[in-house]
Amino acid sequence: MSDPFTIRIYVPDGDPEAVRIIDRMNWTGLGIVFPRGKWPEVRQRWEQLRGAGVYILVGYGNQDDDLPTLYIGQADGVRSRIETHYQKKDFWDWGVVFVSNSAGLNRAHVTWLEHALVKRANEAKRCHLDNGNAPQEPALSEAEKADTRAFLKEVLQILPLVGLRAFEIPKAVAEPKAIDPALLPQVNRAKPDTIIVPAQKDGFEKVFLGEDCWYAVRISGGMLDNIKYVAGYQTHPVSAITHYAPVSRIEPYGEEGKFKLVFSGKAKPIGPIPYGDAPSGAMQSPRYTTFAKLQTGKKLSDLLSR
After folding, report:
1. Does residue 173 lie in a domain region?
2. Of the residues 119, 135, 162, which one is the last residue of a structural domain?
3. How many domains does the chain have?
4. Is residue 167 part of a domain?
5. Which CDD domains match (predicted)?
6. Same domain, 186 and 147
7. Which domain holds residue 283?
8. Both 53 and 140 in a single domain?
9. Claim to verify: residue 143 and residue 53 sit in the same structural domain
10. DSSP string for the chain
């Protein structure tokens, strides 16, 4: 079980969406979170930014991305490095920088932190990295590595609280157990347990059939524990439900409250169940139904009817 902790957030402008200064009791570090547009003001904090530090720049490569793009960097003189990125990197919307408030970090320490954060981001697979190369782990003494690991632990605890979960290894929010509907009482068979997701041809073949999962799905909180199956609706020109799969786990995906459905096996063909006389726009977003209806429905409206 993780240890409980407290952080302190100081908002110098009085605007919670603007600059935030973060510290913790008995911690030698200091975090500064800022929107890109506030960098000209933040850069005036010379005393806090003139030393060694590690920073993360956050944005989206394009408006259709569900995963954020990150650039993870370090410098001995972090202010000038971020200033360069402010001038030359366009993708980022906000940043967070971590420095020591007691001159406790040196170049080797922040290089190790950069290495550890890049490694962690690659393991979590919850972002796109703008870094060109993975930094090599620098040599630190046993004592220095222990201290720097402790600093990293503090950073990883703070990041989700400022809106960045890209370094968290995904944990299942639900682990469905699919059961043959014929074995369930009739009252339970009427409860939605299947989500129908719209998919274009390329994504359907690459992800739904190829990777045995489907991601970037919005699911209402009350449905997370109910979903046991996912059905794939292929958009035009197919315009039909063609496959389904049992769901083994549901994980968070990205920073916008979406989820990833991980299948317990390969998707199986069904139907196809055509769009038919369903109302216009019926499959512009995920819909819920029951697996019993999925097995017997002849057209989409059969699945969506109450």
Report:
1. no
2. 162
3. 2
4. no
5. GIY-YIG_unchar_2 (cd10447)
6. no
7. 181-304
8. yes
9. yes
10. -PPP---EEE-TTS-TTS-EEEE-TT--EEEEEEEGGGHHHHTT-HHHHSSEEEEEEEE-SSTT-SSPEEEEEEEESHHHHHHHHHHH--SEEEEEEEEETTS---HHHHHHHHHHHHHHHHHHT-SEE--SSPPPPPP--HHHHHHHHHHHHHHHHHGGGGT--TTSPP--SB------GGGS-HHHHTS--EEEEEE-HHHIIIIIITTSEEEEE---GGGTTT--EEEEEETTTT-EEEEEEEEEEEEEETTTTEEEEEESS--EEEEEEE-TTPPTTTTSS-EEE-HHHHHH-SSHHHHH--
Q: Kindly state the tokens that stand for 305.
A: 């009817």
Do 213 and 148 fall within a single domain? no
Sign of CA dihedral 258, 190, 269, 196: negative
Contact 30, 48 (CB under 8 A): yes
- Same domain for 199 and 60, yes or no, is no
Parallel, antiparallel or unpaired: strands 69-76 and 128-129 = parallel
* Residues whose CB falls within 8 Å of the CB of residue 50, separated by 6 or more in sequence, listed in order: 77, 78, 79
Residue at token pair 């017997």 = 296
